[in-house]
Amino acid sequence: VSGFWVVIACRRPLVSGLPPPAFSSSSRASGSHGPAFAKLNRREGAGGWSPLSSDPHQWLEVDLGGRTRITAVATQGRYGSSDWLTSYQLMFSDAGHNWKQYRQEDSRGVSNTNADSVVLHKLQHPVIARHLRLLPLDWNPRGRIGLRLETYGCSYGSHVVSLGGRGGLLFRLSPGPRRTSGASVSLTFKTLRNSGVLLRAEGRSEHGLVLQLEEGKLLLLLLRKGRTASPDGRRLVSLGSLLDDQHWHHVSMELGVDGLNLTVDGSSLWVRLPPRLAHWDHQQVSVGAGRGPRRAVGGSGHFHGCLENLVYNGVNLLELAEKKDQRGDVIFSCAESVPVAMTFTSAQSFLRLPLATEAPPSTRTSAGLQFRTWNEAGLLLTFDLPEQEGAAWLYLSGARLHLRIHKAGRAPLELSAGSALNDGQWHSAELTSRRGHLSVSVDGGEGATAHASPPFLVAMGGQLFFGGCPADGGRQDCVNPFKAFQGCMRLLTVHNQPVDPIPLQQRLMGNYSHLQIDMCGILDRCSQSHCEHGGSCRQSWSSFHCNCSGTGYSGATCHSSIYEQSCEAYKHRGNASGYYHIDVDGSGPIRARLMYCNMTEDHTWTVIQHNNTALTRVRPAPGGGRISAHFAYASDEEQLAAVIGQSERCEQELSYDCRKSRLLNTADGPLLSWWVGGPGDGQVQTYWGGAPPGSQRCSCGLQQNCVDPRHACNCDADRSEWYRDSGLLTHKETLPVRSLVLGDVQRSDSEGAYRVGPLRCHGDKNVWNAALFDQETSYLHFPTFHGELSADISFLFKTSSSSGVFLENLGIKDFIRIELRSSTEVLFSFDVGDGPTEVAVTTGFPLDDDRWHRVRAERNVRAASLRLDELPAATREAPADGHVHLQLNSQLFIGGTASRQRGFRGCMRSLQLNGVPLDLEARARITPGVQAGCPGHCSSYGSLCQNRGRCVERTSSFSCDCSSSAHTGAFCDREVSASFKSETSVSYAFNELDRGSDGSPSPAVSSDLDLRAEDLSLSFRSLQSPALLLFVGSSRREYLALLLNQAADVLRSKVTNLADGRLHAVVVTIDIQHDACTYPLSPDSAELDPGLSRLASLGFTGCLSGVLFNSVSPLKAALLHPDTSPVVVTGPLVQSICGSTSADPHSGSVGTGQPVENAVRRDSALIGGSVPALFLTVTFGHFPQPCLQNFLVLSPAGQKVGQGPTDLSQNESEMFMSNNVP
């Protein structure tokens, strides 16, 4: 309330009553156009102020007579004219020099549109100053500069003290209660020194607090009592920058419950304090040098400058000191002596200074200056040598000071000194020359000095150019081969004589361009770093750059995560199971963590481990107490909560093996054991795995099959045999398990073992959250999007329409919008006050193809970007000093606009704004014209299903059906491999067969197998030669055999040895076209070839993988579906990774398996061994040679090595047909 009344009361007119001497200006058109006539609504004189010429160098200044709180400025054109301003800039000062530019979102004044209307410009933050200067920037193009003005505000009272490094003030505080919150200290200061101790507060506790300037930044230090050396000062926080600019800066500290809030010029940081500082019991506060011999922390020295209104817990200590006349070595006023600085604002900036007198050839020549900049390179000074014999350049390069001299007929001379001179601090540079000696020094020699002894005198001839050269390239007296300087200069000297810039400003001497005199306009763009997520900030004069290396984020401000938000998102980019970085909130504050993603055919599981997932034995505890176990997870608390919250289902195994160790006792008895689970510290849970929360039961109690029906858990039967209570905890509100307490472990014969499995969650509720917009006038609306400084928007869409607005949010002037502008272009547009900005991505393919496309848009203070699918991002840089805040106030419209025009028709899903998902489905269910969910995912993701896998639509998402594939996995991409021994065989019966290898219906292989049109593929590796890899026989007594290194009755490759232990892949396609090939076999020809029988008896030793005959995978059926498939396994069959291209050639089992037995069937495929390859044979039994009209065999590399009799002669070196076909 008090703040409200201050704003209302502080609106008094300040200019209307001022006398004429209070007004000054750069010039006046005439006596009647003077600055004293520039009062609002006055008509005296010519009706306002107008300068002699209308150009950007003009200004009007008002002296308010004393420091005043200024809250608003009103402008008006010159009465009865066409002269008014359309934009202006405000500057403020205490002493009429050392001006400070007023900066805010609308620091350019609101436009006038005529000469009479009054336009009020409210200052976002009140300014305390005595002098105001208004600089016209633009004016009515049909007139000239004309102005009347008023400022509004109120008086400002202050108590000030000047500290010169020797004097100081010590305040002894009255004893009071120790405060744990509510205590505060505030002060305002100005200084030209970048280091010094501002304030020290000490009390009864061991440690005190120190406020100190260091390199222009404010440090809050924790200092041990009685110590002042830097090793004992612990830095708590650093805030602010460039605080040595001789402008007032406000500092406040407020003690909270568990920390301290430090504020510098409106920027705040929260500092957690050690427990020993939780109580604020200061007994004394000192400023300046204080009393007694004290050294400053870190050797920074005592403070030089002015302090104002030092307030401790509401008491102005400076006011008390002034009343008590505690003068000593301090002065209760603030005297200013500030050197006049100049700001070189752009690459076109320069200052030309004529030499008043040239130094005699025998005397010393010198030039010096001070500068501060963020740029590594720039010209400081250049001049011609006398009689145009050459030139000299003093410049920055690589943040070092360089001097280069070119003299006709001589080799160039180069000197360099200093380093890291682009740190924004003031540095001095001096060039000194006398006959036989030349030197260049940095910071008075402290920053290094370079010397040379040229055989000539380096003298100055003509004129000097500072910062750069005029844009007129025809000038011969100024040539700049380097970059122009951007930064501030002051204290220019020539021949040891200071240069006064004020006559330059009045254009009484020299010349300049793009130069601001009597101010240093340097900005620290990294002090309030816009680099997010730990990105490091580097800056130049006009911009900054964020280094995002190692942060896990990208973009101009390290805003957008480079990782997906869930395992589900990784899966549907085609990734297999493995460890992935998961960033659960995208661009939000939670950092990414490495998590395991288990991509199965049915679900995608996120697995979060903890410190003990093994089965852990429990023995009687010493002293008979309970035993407890605590579980620390591999993810932070915020990550755990986010993963659980966004998942469709989470589960965690909880089991207890017991012998004479009860678990929960009885449903109504005292609780023996429990576990703690849920968010935060969790809550006590009284149920066990497989039972509902609060039931005080185990799974067997719910299913009524416990070993003792009187108890709800097996262990509660208290028997001497081993029993188990186990099950899954599936209620997300109680997960994860944080600790476990077991109570019945005191007895000597009690034994137990517990296991708490990892937390497993599947499904991402956000990835498939979708809405279907079936009308152009339909839309969803959400609360206003708040992305003032950083805004990222991502979503997927699919449509058959060529245009439509995806998203729109409006403000009074600002807006943000993403739209499909045409069937090949997506447009991202916005306005933050600098006018509309557009970023577009144009594709070479249609976007109205009813397939999913991904859009990612980002806007921040540095740039805007738009990315579509995997195309390169389109970017637009933001103006260097433009508006930065996106100010919106309307509802957020999705799928349409507020005008209900140009709406989007199609589907949108997975919409996220700044990492926060929007629930489209929930809003769609209550919105006419919009449907929740969106079908049809296989058109976009069907290609992820590999190796004959079939894409299956789901209500949300899709899956790959691998029943007709020899592979398994989420995308049918994981080979099924097995290691064979000589006694191992797998038989698959085709009669009665109407199912695939996983037990599902499979009409691709009929029970009337005739081997006329077949497809066969497999991979193998082996060292055995020869060998029978696969045999297929039919009820017609026809057969097909795949042999390794057997030269008989074959089509074969000419490579002499495939039994080399390497992995080889084979594909065989058969197409028998002659009718004569269908005749039944005679009984006397049904005998198997003797050579084939001999090979079969040898068995196969090696690896077989990916075996597929038509749509049946016998090996997959034997390993994964033995109970539902017509398969018989003889001998040991062990699943292996031997079929992987990365597997060791002699790898063995990666697990154990038991042989599976089943009945033998009539038509069958027999697999013997694992698949080595290269000298490969295909044998067809009981077919005359003319029947083999069309067949195809592919080599391991996928190259064609045989195709029918017509091609055999051409491929004779690779494949041939034996003459003794049965």
UniProtKB/TrEMBL annotation:
Annotated Gene3D superfamilies: 2.60.120.1000, 2.60.120.200, Galactose-binding domain-like, Laminin
Keyword Repeat applies: yes
InterPro entries: ConA-like_dom_sf (IPR013320), EGF (IPR000742), FA58C (IPR000421), Fibrinogen-like_C (IPR036056), Fibrinogen_a/b/g_C_dom (IPR002181), Galactose-bd-like_sf (IPR008979), Laminin_G (IPR001791), Neurexin-related_CASP (IPR050372)
Domain Fibrinogen C-terminal: 558-610
SUPFAM superfamilies linked to this entry: Concanavalin A-like lectins/glucanases, EGF/Laminin, Fibrinogen C-terminal domain-like, Galactose-binding domain-like
Biased segments, Polar residues type: 1206-1222
CC terms in the record's Gene Ontology section: membrane
Paired cysteines (S-S): 907-934
Domain Laminin G stretches: 160-334, 340-520, 769-934
Positions of the F5/8 type C domain: 10-154
Intracellular or extracellular location(s): Membrane
Keyword Isomerase: no
Main location, first listed in the record: membrane
Chain intervals for the UniProt region annotation (Disordered): 1202-1222
Keywords from the UniProt entry: Disulfide bond, EGF-like domain, Membrane, Repeat, Signal, Transmembrane, Transmembrane helix
Membrane topology value: Single-pass type I membrane protein
Domain of life, per lineage: Eukaryota
EGF-like domain ranges (all copies): 522-559, 935-973
Family designation: Belongs to the neurexin family.
Protein's recorded name: Contactin associated protein like 3
Organism: Gasterosteus aculeatus aculeatus (three-spined stickleback)
